[in-house]
Amino acid sequence: QKEVEQDPGPLSVPEGAIVSLNCTYSNSAFQYFMWYRQYSRKGPELLMYTYSSGNKEDGRFTAQVDKSSKYISLFIRDSQPSDSATYLCAMSTGSGGYNKLIFGAGTRLAVHP
Amino acid sequence: DVKVTQSSRYLVKRTGEKVFLECVQDMDHENMFWYRQDPGLGLRLIYFSYDVKMKEKGDIPEGYSVSREKKERFSLILESASTNQTSMYLCASSSADTPIYGYTFGSGTRLTVV
Questions:
Q1: C-alpha angle with apex A110: A107 to B3, nearest 5 degrees?
Q2: Predicted pLDDT at B47
Q3: Percentage of chain A with pLDDT > 90?
């Protein structure tokens, strides 16, 4: 079993839809949770991060962490064609001098006009 | 604009060749990483370095080596390329002050071994 599971999609939605992207994990020591966005032929870029449980909102994006269920989500409101990308979740325990990130496989999202 | 630059976007190499992938960052970051990205598998860590001349194995170091002679440059070496090393290779860097949140990735090198 992978430490981090993420549905690869693809997910296709109409413009304006609410998108829900999810990851599950098995390591209860994970404390730091991140979402990266990767456009085609580009490297991933950090979109949002949260520490421990709870919600975090940034414009149209909301990140949620439920540590009791080992489940994290990214919601995109009023989705736009420019949101079409691959979304990767990443996690870390935060322990040690080097903080290793464990990535999910990524979910490919297509938002069509 | 700060950046991580990977020297090649696309490379085609023959089986058995020695391959060098170069990565340069201009952010004075202490930490540098090499990942490979494959469909359905996500990003997997090959090697990382937290200081000049220091290196640590990641999850899949077999068949690879690295070199970090200068702080800004981190090279990935495929000693004898094989077809199962065909992949997208991503370099990243981060500061020792914000190691978890501050990853900056390059645009990647798509390597094909024939």
A1: 70
A2: 96
A3: 74
Q: Which residues contact B46 (CB under 8 A, 6 or more apart)?
A: B34, B35, B36, B58, B59, B60, B61, B64, B66, B76
The whole-number pLDDT of residue B97 equals: 78
CB contact at 8 A, A49 and B101? yes
DSSP label at B71? Answer: T
Alpha-carbon distance A20 to A77, whole Å?
A: 9
Q: Which two tokens stand for residue A93?
A: 């325990």
- Quick check: B90 and A43 CB within 8 A? yes
Residues of chain B below pLDDT 50: none
Regions of chain A where pLDDT drops below 50: none
For residue A113, the one-letter residue type is P
- Best residue in B1, B100, B107 to probe A by mutation, most A CBs within 10 Å? B100
> Can you give chain A as a three-state secondary structure string?
CCCEEECCCCEEEECCCCEEEEEEECCCCCCEEEEEEECCCCCCEEEEEEECCEEEEECCEEEEEECCCCEEEEEECCCCHHHCEEEEEEEECCCCCCCCCEECCCEEEEEEC
Integer Rg of chain B from CA: 13
Inter-chain contact A41–B107, Cβ cutoff 8 Å? yes
Distance CA B5, CA A87 (A): 22
Per the rule left: phi > 0, alpha: psi between -120 and 50, beta: everything else, B64 is beta
Measure the CA–CA gap between A92 and A82, rounded to whole angstroms.
Answer: 28
Q: Do B101 and A49 touch (CB under 8 A)?
A: yes
